[in-house]
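Researcher: Structure prediction, please.
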Amino acid sequence: MPQDQFADLFRNLGLASVMVAATVLMHFWGLIVLLRLLNHTGHRLRAHESSAGQAMLLVLVVFGIFALHTAEIWLYAALYLGLGTLGALEPALYFSTVTFVSLGYGDLTLPPAWRLLGAIEAANGVILIAWSAGFLHTVTTRLRALEHNWLKPRPDDRPES
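Model: Predicted structure follows.
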């Protein structure tokens, strides 16, 4: 392997490591802020008393998670712009979005010197999306929003004595 390929490899891995660390920290602190917002807003919406309050909290969580992923995607797009790999904002943002969510249309690609960075963005995106799904599941479970009481016997279903 020629020396310039090693340099490209280490440059990719170095930048990718910085980006993974930055997006994981961004996600962590974003979820902390979202939890604090939920704690504050949950009481105002009376989520413990009504399905409508629970639904509003879930909408808040989904939009908060979406905002976090959007910021992470924009961070990668800014990196691609800074590296001059995709030329303009729209292609950088489009490439970052389809890569982050592992859709990967393939209509835009990074130059060979940076394609490993794109692959690592995809792996990073999958991990952060899974983390978000786990967070949303936990919130839904804590709210007991989708609890099904249809398995519990009702008072009028008791056997007659």
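Model: Residues 3-45 form the longest helix (43 residues).
Researcher: Thanks, that helps.
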